Structures are given as structure tokens and as C-alpha cells.
Known about the structure:
By secondary structure, the chain is an alpha+beta fold.
Amino acid sequence: MRLILVFVIAVCGTVFARAGVAQSRVPEPVAQALARAKLPEASVAFYVHEIGAERPLVAYGDERVLNPASTMKLVTTYAGLELLGPAYAWDTEAYGSGPLANGVLNGDLILKGHGDPKLTIENFWLLLRNLRARGVREIRGDLILDRSFFSREAFDAAHFDDQPTRPYNTGPDALLVNFKAVTVQFIPDPESRTVRLLIDPLLPHVTVANNLKLTDGACGYWLSRIQIDAQGSAEAARLAFSGSYAADCGEQARSFSVLGHREYLAGLFSVLWQELGGVFSGATRDGTVPSGARLLASAKSHALSEIVRDINKYSNNVMARQLFLTLGAVGENAPASADKSNRVIKQWLAAKSLSFPELVLENGSGLSRIERITARHMGELLLAAYGSPVMPELVASLPLTAVDGTMRKRLSRNVVAGQAHIKTGSLSNVRSIAGYLLDSRGRRVVVVFFVNHANAGNAQPVQDALLQWAYQRGDDACCAPRRR
């Protein structure tokens, strides 16, 4: 019996020793990929944990407080699904401040937003069409925009990367329509040797100058041959295009965020209302729904379970910010603010016994220089989410390797293809992944990888090596010694 007991203790000691080694060392294939990428191990963090296991397989650098880039969207979307519920939807409402008789609204039309993250042109058109179907033809007052569900916090679209016309830099707004974007389609016409520009929506506040020349030859990176001059202010904008465009490129598109929220919505309303046969000649201004106003029509957004798919699969920063602020408005009452959202999310984490003292949330999208979390805590968040009733909605929202979203072109000829739901993150000097992988034995594994370094752009092969190792691993992980 003594010999058996000694043997059992020895075996257990070996198992725990192995577990300890696996936790403190980088898997050999990953270490080799790091060396090739010229990424020092001191700049990275790994956390790999099988669902249901007591200890992580790899936990290296996992206590480092790092910028997670867009993997921060996992915090926002998981919180949203649990706190608001997968069926949560945003309402956009149209009120009249005066009587409606014979198709004429003798008063103002008030549009009230509640932060719909995906109020597209199509859905906005349906709201106006519904308004027309209910008998409104002419509006003899003004168009009032009630954007009070979100607070008016100062926002500089150029602050993050000096690219204020890029749609991902569009600021949040309670009455955000179409991401405040204008899409330009480039259409080559070989017969006339010209390049047509199709603008959608064609707004009266935006002028476009087309000086493009159609050329022959291979397309290549088509944007590199075009000079784009985007000028303007909140009230008006001008987009000018010059350079060459190869006929071989076919049709391409580029979107721009131009004008202020009020001016964009004013122009879009005017265009669509006229197309619907409506009459309007008033001004557009901000305000709130007055007492006694009558609800004329409303539009409901897609359910949150669908919204989070767009946020995570395509890493939509604007939609993530809208959801982030909605959490503050619902949790601590409107108007929403970043401070309210911060408190709501941290209280939610505390209620789940998740203590993340290092967590820094600026806007909940990861498009930030200051947002921070450790790889361990991101992993613990994903472990908790896997035991949540909203787990199916969250997992399904993540890009599937080699199939869709930001992972569509990744690992297509690899054993990991179709086996992992992975959120990606990318900023200058930052690369990250976080999500779930189904390994070769059918075990579900949480995988997190962060790197903050000047050579972070070289990190994709390292991420792929980690995913492949996690997929193919045996029970005994074979790891490289820690480098000093």
C-alpha cells in the first residue's frame, strides 16, 4: 500500500509539474513563430484554457496590462447580451407637434432616436414610407431631431488617427443614420474611356469633383492610384478625385463620413421625403419631443442578437460604441455617457465575481489608445460567457476561421479552418485574437493572444501557430523554455 501511495503521489506530482510547465512556457511552435516575427516574448501575452479544466494550458505574460484592440468588443457585446437580452431592440420614433388634416401636418415633425446601431438608409426610408402611408404628405413646420438619449459629449473624428472622413471614426449619436456615410462607387466605362462616380446618398450638402482618368493594365491596389481630397465642415463637404483608375478593376466602392449628424440627417430626410412624394420646406434643428406631441410612426431595429454579429464578425466600431452607450442609458437612465457605461459594465462584472481592476474602457469598441485588459481576464471573461445562457448568441457572433468576417481569409488550408470562432483586433503596434476553438479531440478551448510592439504587424503567423497548436495539442503540452 505504501508503494502504491508513493507511486500515486509521484504520478500526481508529475502531472501537476507538467501543468505548471505548460502554464509558464510558450509552446515551441509559437516560440519559433515569435522569433521569425521578431517579436520579443516580453511584448506578448498568451492564455489558453480548456472549458471545464481547472487550470489553463498556457498562461504566459497573462498578467500584463495590454491594449487588446478590437477584442475589447467581447466585453461590450457579452455585457449587452446579458444586461439587455438577445431580443433587445432600439426604437426610432416620429412625432407630430400639431394636428394632421388632409395629409398636412400643421406643426413640426420630431424624430426621436434611441441609439439604433444599424439604422440604415433602407430602414430610415421604411420609417418615412410608413409615415406617408399613415397620411402625412406635407409638413408645414420644421424637422426637429431629438438626440437627447445620448449626452452631447465632445467628439473629434480626427483625434484617433487624423482620418476624420473614415466611417470607423464616426462619433456615436442617438439618431445615427447610415453611419453618417456617403458611399462612392467607381464605375469604369471602357467605351467612353471615363470613370463614372455613383454617390449614395446624393446629398445637397456634398459636392463631388471627378477628375479620374481611365487606364488599361492590371488593377493592382486601385486606391493607391487615386488622389482623394476630402474637405469640409459640419455644414458642407467636397470630395475630389483625381489620378487614374484601371478598367481591369471593375466596380469598386469607398465610403466617407462627411457632414455633421444634423446636416447629414437633414439632407437625407429632404431627399427621401421628396422621393416619396412628400412636401417639406422647413428648417432642421435639434430639440426634444414636446409634451402633447402625437406618435405618428416608429421603426424597430434588428434584435441585439443580430446586431452583435455585425459588431464582432466585421469589427464595426461605430455599432460597438452605440451599444456601449446604450448600456449606460438603460442601466443608469438617459442621457447616456461613457462614465455611466463604465460603471454599468464594472458593476455587472463584479456581480459575476469577475474582478478586473486593470480594465480601462474608453468607448467599448477597442478603437482606442488607452483601453486595457490582461489576457488572463479576457480569457476568464470568455470562460464565464461559455456558461452563460447567452453563450450561443455570443459565440455565433464571432468570425469563423476561413469562413466569414475578419477571419474569412485566414487559415483556409489549415486544420483549424472552420474550427474556431475568433475575434480579431488590429491597431498600429497592436494585434490580438480571442475566442473559442474546437480541438482535434472535440474539446472546446478558450484562446487569447495579445501583442503590443512596434513589430505587431508581423504577428499573424504567430496567432495562426497558437491556434494550430491549441487544435493539435496532446494532453501533455510540449513547450519551449521561458526566454530571459
